[in-house]
Fold this protein.
Amino acid sequence: MSPNIPFFKQVDQYVNRAAPFAELPDGLLAQIKATNAVYHVSFPVEMDDGSIRVVEGWRAAHSVHKLPVKGGVRISEHASEDEVTALAALMTFKCALVDVPYGGGKGGIRVEKHNFSERELERIVRRYTFELTQKNFIGPSVDVPGPDMGVGAREIGWMVDTYMALSTGKPHLQAAVTGKPLPLGGIRGRVEATGRGVFFGIREAVDQKDDMEALGLEPGLEGKRVVIQGLGNVGYYAGRFLTDAGAVVVGVAEREGAIHDPKGIDVEALFQHRAQGGSILEFPAKEALEDARAGLELDCEILVPAALENQITPENAPRIQARIIAEGANGPVTVDAHDILARRGVLMLPDMYLNAGGVTVSYFEWLKNLSNVRLGRMNRRFEAAAQNRVLDAVEVVTGKTFGPEVREEVAVGAREEDVVNSGLEDTMINAYHETREAAKDWDTDLRTSAYALALRKVATAYRDRGIFP
C-alpha cells in the first residue's frame, strides 16, 4: 500500500481486521466506524504588516458513544480533513482501550507555525477558538481540545482564555480545554505525560520474559539500544525516561537529518542544543546522516517513531533493524509495512495504546477542573501523618530511632504529580496486559487485539445507552 493512501482509510483497514474478533452486528460496527461530525472553517486573520491571511481549520468529532469527545489540536501546514478525522478515530479507540470515558475528537489549523509571529499565532488560535465556540464544538461536556503537534501550554492558554471570555455564566469553564498552564487550571505531569506513557508501555513490554525470548532478547531495559525519531515533547521525554531506566539512546532523527553513536547520545544535551537553534547534525556524535529517514534503519533493539504518520512504509520496512517498534506518534507505520514487519517477527507496540499517556493525564486534569480540587490536596497530610504513626510504632517495638532523613523519605503524602504519575502507570500497565492476553487468546498481534478490545468497549457504551440491541 502506498503511504499516500488516505490516513483515515488506513485506520479503517485496521478496524476491519479487528472486527471479526469483536463480533459486532454490521449496523453497530458501521456506526462505530463513521465520523459523527466534522466542522471545516475558514477565517480571516490580520498579519502584523496589515495584510489579511485566510486560515483553514477543522474540528472532528468521530464518536459520541461517550461525551465529551476528546482530542488535541495541531498546528501544521499538513493539517487536513482526512488527517483530523483519522486522528479523531484513533482517539475514539485509544480512549476506549485505556478506559478513559471520552469519545474521540481532533482538531487542526493549517499553517506553518514558524512563518508567523507570536502575535499572529495568537490571533489565529483565538479566532479558531471563537469559531469552535460559536458552533458548540468546544465545552466541558461537549468537546475538550488539548495540545498536539505545534500546540503547547501557551496556545492552550489562549484557547481557554478565549473560551472563558465568550462563555461567562457557564459552569466549569476551565474544563473546556486540557494541557493548560498551571495558573489556568492545568495539572502537574501533563507536559511529560505522553512520553512517560511511552516509557511505561515499553518497560512493561520488555519485562515479559517469554516475549523477549521470542525476539532473542533478555528481559528488561538495561543496555537496550534505542533509536528515536522526533525530539519533540514525546520523543524527548520518552528518551529521557528510557535512559534513566538503563536503556541507551544510540540514534536520533529529526527533520534535518539523523545522528548515530553506539556509545550513547545525551538526550538532554541534544534537546537543549536544538532548543538554542542548533542543528542535530552539528551535535557531537560518531555519525551524521543527512537523510533523516535513514535514522529509522539504524541498528537497535527498540525504535521509537515519535514524529509523523506514514514514516515506516513498504519501501523502508525491509531495512528496519529494530526488534521492537514502539509507536510514540500516531500512525507512523502503514498497513502494508505493519504486515512486512509482523512477518519478520518484529514486536509492534501500537500507537493507540502506547501514546495514550497524554489523554489519560488530560482526563485527570478534566476531573480536577470539574471538582475544583487539586489532586492529593485532601489526603496528602493525612497519609504523611499515618505513615509517621507507623514509624512511631516500629520505634517502640524495635527500640530503634528513625532519623529525620528516613522520615522525610518514607512519611510523605502523595503530591499531585505523584497521584498523576501513579494513575498513568496503572493505566498503561493494565491496558498492556489486557491487550497482550487478548492477543494470545485470539492468536493475533497487539494492534489487532487493541482495536478489537476498543470496538467491544465502544459497542458496550452504545448498547448501555439503548441505541443498539
Remarks:
- Residues 35-186 form a domain with the Rossmann fold fold (CATH 3.40.50.10860).
- The chain has 16 helices and twelve strands.
- The mean pLDDT is 93.
